[in-house]
Amino acid sequence: MEVMSARDLFGLDPKEFVAARDQLARDLRARGEADDAKEVRALRRPTVPAWALNQVARDAPATIDRFLDATAAARVAQDDVLAGAGREVLQRGLADRRDALRAIVVHARDVLTRSGRTSDAVDREIEPALMAEPDAAFVDRLRRGELVDLAASGEADDDLSTLLSASTGAVVVPLRKRERTGPDPDVIRAAQEAEADAAQRLAAAEHALEVADRRIVEADAELARAKDDARVARRDHEHARTAHAKAAGALERTRRG
């Protein structure tokens, strides 16, 4: 039988972690590996969100690599924009990172669903953790699929990435801070375009909501009319049955007479 390793513990469901960890520590101690047993015994059980992300890293490591590479590329794109490049390069970087993050989210939701858990943790903890600026230790544990928790490991989002994500519909990318040297005309122009685009989307959404509400009202009215018609039809049917029964009885009596 293959002997379990410390890394294998992080592939187990969190409900099984503590018992398996303690058993592994006892086995190591029995083999005379006291130091390793002590290290294993000190391992903490992963939180459910961390466990779900660990499974993504174990099942689909290329998905994690793609996300981390896209994050690094987006940082480079931001520096290019600040150096004078067109903002389209950052928009593309943000879009690539958004797509990479979506792949992780889909996989994590599937892991949680298959385990019989809700996927609320994806929106509440997993996405925010990945959107924070990760430190080297977090990235290393993520790649190995040995995260214990998803505590924030970085700084707040950069203004430029937040601005451009608003105009592209992309997930906000946490990028490096820069010295504040006053308003940048390109940034102001991008903000104006983002605001105009958001206003158009809001107007379209409000119109769609009005149309949907109107259709609901119309459907409710149609349903009420259908119910009324059904009541009338049932009443007429009952009257017709009664009249038919009377006529049949009269016919039978006539024949006997």
Could you list the spans in which at least 5 consecutive residues all have pLDDT below 50?
A: 154-161, 163-180
What is the helix fraction of residues, given as a range? over 70%
Q: Percent of residues in beta strands?
A: under 5%
Distance between the termini: 97 Å
Number of strands: 0
Shape: flat
Rg of Cα set:
32 Å
- Described by its quaternary structure, the protein is single chain
Helix run count? 10
Mean pLDDT across the residues is 80
Sheet having the most strands? none
Walk me through this protein's architecture:
This protein has 257 residues and is mainly alpha-helical. Helix content is 75%, strand content 0%. The protein is built from 10 helices and no strands. It has helices at 6-9, 14-30, 34-41, 48-59, 61-82, 88-114, 120-131, 136-144, 159-168, 185-256. Helix 6 (88-114) runs antiparallel to helix 7 and helix 6 crosses helix 9 (159-168). It is flat. The N and C termini lie far apart (97 Å).
Q: What is the topology?
A:
Elements lengths: L5 H4 L4 H17 L3 H8 L6 H12 L1 H22 L5 H27 L5 H12 L4 H9 L14 H10 L16 H72 L1
What key attributes describe this structure?
mainly alpha, 10 helices
In short, what is this structure?
The chain is mainly α and 257 residues long.
